[in-house]
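Margin note: ligand = uridine-diphosphate-N-acetylglucosamine.
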Amino acid sequence: MSVLVDVIAGARPNFMKIAPILHAMRSRRDAGGPLRWRLVHTGQHYDPRMSGEFFDQLGIPAPDVNLEVGSGTQAEQTAGIMVGYETLLLQQRSACCLVVGDVTSTMACAITAQKLHVPVAHVEAGIRSGDWTMPEEINRLATDAVTNWFFTTSEHANANLRRAGVDEARLFFVGNTMIDTLLANMARLRAPDVVQQHGLQSGGYFVTTLHRPANVDSAESFGRLLRAIGDGCRGLPVVFPVHPRTAKTLRALPDFPANLLLVDPQPYLEFNWLVKHAKGVITDSGGITEETTVMGVPCLTLRDNTERPETVELGTNELIGTDPAKLAPALARLFDGQWKQGQVPPLWDGRTGERIVATLEQLLA
Ligand code: UD1
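Resulting structure:
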């Protein structure tokens, strides 16, 4: 008898997390396993550069359903996804709703499923920044409050969940599916055009990504941050793939440092090529700090907290904060060759998707 699992994806950071799970599901099915899946794209990210290109490059099949929620406020997106997903579940129930990460789609589908008594599996459960001003933290808390099965990336996540009263039978420390995708694609990474156009040399440029509302929504402080990045990198080129949210503020700035190379959001293989060969990465993303840790590339995070402390304790990441003045001294240490080497956290070994699917088979079959 086959068992239907909904695999939910909505926004860019979800796509690299679902890819290895879908690949593992396909292998187990081909080997006679009982699990079947329905890939539900909520449509939170819809531009080809934020969505379709990732499906193509990572070999993710076309979604079975697209809820086409599009852009909106937090509540508009949440409500749209809930209505769309509820309609789908009422038409055809699934045996499990599998959500990944911490975006609005993750939370909205988890709550919708649980209210219809469809059990929820959360991949990347239990991570916490403690910062309630970030929508992702609210999404994490709300999702884990209605999760049946917690798949975790780190001992920190396990400890957070145990503290919240989650019992061991529902806790599965499996590793990191984002790193499965990175390791599976390491040999396929390829240089984007900007490398040739600007003659970028390995170790001779930086990469920056910024999209958190706290950093990019005010033109004045965003301008200050960009000047600090431009100066701190001492004239070396800084490749800056611009997220659509960031582009809006960027258009309002009178100017920006000449060594910043603005490019469109990059596809997966090109972006990680840039990271792998960079002297360092300056970011406010969480996921990128995991990838730099595995690639051993210095990472400076422009946030005051992180939900991924293992990237700081074990990896190459350092929390710089949001004060632009903190950047120059940190970059000076990097230029002096004093950045830590770092090591890869336990179970970030490329096999996480397989472990998740094997566990789901036992839970659901
Ligand atoms: C979302 C996630 C964030 C993740 C980020 C990665 C939440 C709460 N946040 O933030 O955790 O790190 O994605 O990219 O879920 N837009 C486009 N084209 C698109 C998608 C969005 O132009 O394909 C525009 C929207 O109009 C909006 C802005 O980008 O103005 C933000 O999009 P949204 O999905 O609301 O949140 P992100 O900031 O992308």
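The pocket of uridine-diphosphate-N-acetylglucosamine is lined by residues 11-13, 44-47, 50, 71, 103-104, 135-136, 211, 243-245 (CB under 6 Å).
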